[in-house]
Amino acid sequence: MKKIYALLFALSMMASAHASHLMGGEILARSIGNNSYEVLLVIYRDTLGIPVAQTATLDVYDSQGNIAFSQTMNLDTVYSGTLLPTSAYGVEIYGYFDTLTFPGPDTYSLTWSTCCRNAAILNLSQPGSESMWLKTELMVDTSNNSTPVFLTTPVLVVPADTVWTHNPLPFDADGDSLVWSLDTPMNMNGQACAGYTLPPSDSAGPFSMDPITGTISWDPAALGNYVTSILVEEYRNGVKIGEIRRDLQFIVVPDSSSLRIANIAQIPTDQNGHYRLDMTTDAPMSFDLVASSDVNTEMDAYGAIFEFDSNPAVFSKTYTDLGKTVTGNISWVPTADQASDEPYIVVYRVNDKTFSFDLSILYHVHERGVGMEETKMDPVKIFPNPSTEGIYLELPEGQTLVNIYSLDGKLMKSTQLNSQVGPRYLQHDLPSGTYVVEFNQGFRSVKTTMVVL
User: Fold this and answer.
1) What does the alpha-carbon distance between residue 392 and residue 405 come to, in Å, rounded to a whole number?
2) Same fold for the pair 260-366 and 381-452
3) Per-residue pLDDT, 336
4) pTM to 2 decimal places
5) Measured on CA atoms in the order 380, 382, 386, 388, is the torsion positive or negative?
6) What tens digit of pLDDT does each residue of 120-164 get?
7) Could you confirm whether domain 260-366 is CATH 2.60.40.10?
8) Mean pLDDT (the chain, rounded)
9) CA gap 242, 232 in Å, rounded
10) Number of neighbours of residue 329 by Cβ within 10 angstroms
């Protein structure tokens, strides 16, 4: 899956001598062996303000909090300054790129900050005096671990009084587990920005992130500029090995869009309301999504199923109605080694050249002959794992007793579930730690482990 890094480095390394009101960014690192990494600092800015700097300095700290070294990276003047596509507001992408060699194995923090944030931000108490601070934690070892990446670019312009969705779609090519959450924007000292609150929303559509798909949804209640941060934590065998942060500023403007998904009512959903498609290995799959508006309509698709080094899914699109309707098709014949206990998240981004929104669909790939109606208890599917407030369970149909124990054998939670086809959500509200989850159906039982953050 290494090709995803080449794609992101090509798309994200972008700058020019235009003005720089910073609207967000992230720090990415890709291993090239021998403790060396290609590192990319990506920043997003509007087309007003002061010129961007020609260099950016990363401060690198070791796991004890001591500064290991600092490195000044140059602005890539060839690719930088590209406008973010399909935006109703002028947003440009810039990139600073260099190769960093670390002293030896350790978990390092890569940090960068600059002053100041946009004074027009409404959900900070003193935005004009707050810096923007980015941080990425990276485990450097013999596994040549790289950071997760975000497969989709930000959607920074949001229509008012309309339910809007965006999925940054974090992805790790090393196969590590990811846990995502909304977090507080930070300032130059790595401290929370003063007075931060979630952006204002109508009561029926609060600003929130789905813990399963990573989709941010929001029904903005007021025009203006708002900021938040997305934190993605990386786990390997239940142990945290790193994290990456994307800082984002949203601009809410009046809604002037007729954009919609025409066949959304025909997409299957699971018991928890997530759009879901099931398939089996070695069986052809083809799915069409149709979007339309009063003007030209576009669609793209993102996800791990497109990033396999061999046998990736294929996305294609066709236009009708003079370009006002677009049909996106995903075709794929998954192989046995592409079957997964956890679903693949596919994000469709539709836009009308002014506004965009994302639709997330869970693609479940089952081994041939092992469907959700299968009655055997082993294995039991849990996702996400690690989790925060709850988990989804893939269980055989029927009554299942779920017991959660601490490692010292104490029963922490016991729940009887009437399992049907599709995943069931179980809220656990447990303290951070590792737990044993036991599933019982009659005389049969099976156990697995779960990590709670």
Assistant:
1) 17
2) yes
3) 93
4) 0.79
5) negative
6) 899 999 998 888 999 999 999 999 999 999 999 887 788 999 999
7) yes
8) 85
9) 9
10) 15
Enumerate the domain spans of the chain: 3-253, 260-366, 381-452
Six-digit token string for 236? 């390997």
Task: For domain 381-452, give its CATH number from 3.90.550.10, 2.60.40.3080, 3.40.1170.60, 2.40.320.10.
Answer: 2.60.40.3080
Tens digit of each residue's pLDDT (9 = 90 or more) over 199-246: 999 988 999 999 889 999 999 999 999 999 999 999 998 899 999 999
Give the residue-averaged pLDDT of 364-378.
Answer: 58
> For 195-223, b where at least 16 C-beta lie within 10 A, e where not — what string?
ebeebbbeeebebebbbbbbbbbbbbbee
For range 382-389, the mean pLDDT:
83
* Dist. CA 421–CA 404, nearest whole Å: 22
Q: In angstroms, what CA-CA distances link 324 with 153, 255, 287?
A: 23, 18, 20
Contact 75, 52 (CB under 8 A): yes
pLDDT tens-place string over residues 13-56 = 333 323 336 788 999 999 999 999 999 999 888 766 667 788 99
The token pair at 367 is: 């081994």
* Among the ranges given (265-269, 333-337, 376-380), the one the predictor scored with the smallest mean pLDDT: 376-380
State the Cα–Cα distance between residues 330 and 345, nearest whole angstrom. Answer: 13
Specify whether the CB–CB gap between 412 and 406 falls below 8 A.
yes
Estimate the share of the chain in helix, then strand, then coil, as percent rounded to the nearest 5. Answer: 5, 55, 40
Q: How many CB atoms lie within 10 A of CB 95?
A: 25
Those residues whose C-beta lies under 8 Å from the C-beta of residue 7, and which sit 6 or more positions away, are none
- Could you give phi then psi for residue 221, rounded to 5 degrees? -95, -10
Contact 169, 214 (CB under 8 A): yes
Q: How far apart are CA 292 and CA 45, in angstroms?
A: 29
